Amino acid sequence: MAFGHRFYIVDRLFRDLSSSQQILAAMHSIAANNSAGGTYCEADGCVDTPAGILHHASRFILPVASYASDRYVLSPAQIENQRDRSVLAELIASVEPNQSIRLADALLSEFGSIGRILSEPKEALQRVIGQQKAVVQLLTAAKSLLMANLENEVPKQLVSATDEKLIRYLKAGMGALAVETMRVLFLNNANYLVGDQEFGTASPRKILVQPRSILKRALELNASAIILVHNHPSGETRPSKSDIKFTLSIKVLCRELEITLHDHIIIAGKGWSSFRKMKII
User: Fold this and answer.
1) pTM above 0.90, yes or no
2) Tens digit of pLDDT for each residue in 223-243?
3) Which residues pair with residue 276 across a beta bridge?
4) What is the pLDDT of residues 27-45, one digit of tens each?
5) 164 and 144 co-located in one domain
6) Would you say 236 and 272 are in contact if contact means Cβ atoms under 8 Å apart?
7) Residues with Cβ < 8 Å from 13, sequence gap 6 or more?
8) Distance of CA 122 to CAs 22, 23, 129, 265, Å?
9) φ, ψ of residue 221 in degrees (nearest 5)
10) What is the CA 277 to chain-centroid distance, rounded?
11) Are residues 180 and 91 in the same domain?
12) What is the CATH number of the domain that holds 258?
């Protein structure tokens, strides 16, 4: 299959998944379509535009809103599942046309969503679909393409730690992860990004991070400010007591080293929250 057509499928994958707001919420084509409808979530809740999920689903797969009888109308979860299955199978068909539906079903059955699939390492994908190296490589490349596109959109000079494009990038990279992960954005005195790095060892419920390792890296990069980011696989946007304790301890250490702690962002699936907005720091 020609590369141009394969890229078209990946681009369509990007656009079809706007309502999930996880890995796929942050794609270039969706960003351009945000004004037409979609769903976004912040710390204070979710907001659905008039178009919403049905708009994006009916545009490509199921004209569910047009059925006369309610018994034919699928739930939002069913719509999302069918959309994911259709788009994923179409993408896989570009390298494995004879088994695309079976492989898409196997992946979705194991991981639940495209966002989670694209967040998994190669070993996890191979465990589910076997020695389908071309499919694994394609999915890995799709994730890399996604992240590169979103990273290019993030302003190099951040005016706000909750910049819309930065939040999209963070959601894409962390929203579907199965374990808690801490990453730190390092900025210079003009608020230009000079580093983006993960820290600590993780489990589904906690992260073990040494504050000194973060501050040591900040000094190595000659950073003047940092933004802490971590995810909650549970989908809970509220910080835990340990989250707050850790953040306040980092803030004290930063002050002693004349480093500014701009914010601590929690990414939780479709939602997110800001310690700064919650007035915790």
Assistant:
1) no
2) 999 999 999 999 999 999 999
3) none
4) 444 344 444 443 334 444 4
5) no
6) no
7) 24, 87, 88, 90, 91, 114, 142
8) 19, 17, 11, 28
9) -85, 0
10) 21
11) no
12) 3.40.140.10
